[in-house]
Specification:
The chain has 261 residues and is α/β, with parallel strands linked by helices. It has 4 helices and 13 strands. A 6-stranded parallel β-sheet has the order 1-2-3-5-7-9. It has a 5-stranded parallel β-sheet with strand order 4-6-8-10-12. It has a two-stranded parallel sheet with strand order 11-13. Helix 1 packs parallel to helix 2. The termini are far apart.
Amino acid sequence: MGKKSGKGKKGKKEAEPTEPAHDPGWERAVQSGRWDRPPDALPDASQWPTWGALRERVLTSCREIVVTWSTTLRDSFPAELVKLSPPDLNRLELRGCPSLTRLVLSPVTSCPKLTHLDLSSCNTLSHVLIQSVSLESLALARCAMLHKALIQCKNLRQLNMEGCHTIDTLLLWSEILMELDLTTCTNLRTVELYCPELYGDNCHLPKLKELPAPEPPKHPPIVAMLKEQYSEKARKEAERKEREHTLSSSNTIFPRTFRKA
């Protein structure tokens, strides 16, 4: 009989996963310094482990990011850009993105070379907070749901808010802004302008809406309530003292049998 081989059969080795092909547009964006496609066309770390770093490389290489009329752009995309703060980014356009609801560019050191920001026609944008020492131009025109804008940009030269019919609060700081037209912002209730170069002839405001008068309280005035409270307190204190006085006058330390007649 022949000898049996002591070696068992080896199982088939599983094929190692291979990295998906790179989109040629990624390297072109790095070389040109411009990204102009929807965010979902960027490398995604969930598809391959090293693509998170690749995504960061693409975005931080950009001098211009132009994503317009994109249905896939969410609030997380500008938040990602602010966190990465691309050092040479000077133009950011997110015009007409229907799912963008808020944008926060803060602190002032974020995106240190950004000079142009366009958020026009973002119909669900409701709140913006923008702090920048480099920004010169800001477009918020036709943002139909914008309610509050807080803008602290010392070098802002141009602000377009045409057709922002729902905005009710605007706080604006700029050391060099010389012209401002808010006549179409007809729902404004609160406006605070810290713009030393902005004079009456170049600043056009609508008639501000008055805040609704507060409803009269449904309870008595607080003074009357306090007075009533303290009066009740004083009455109870007087009654207590009267009881103590009556008690002390009727009692004695001597038993009744030893009292003089």
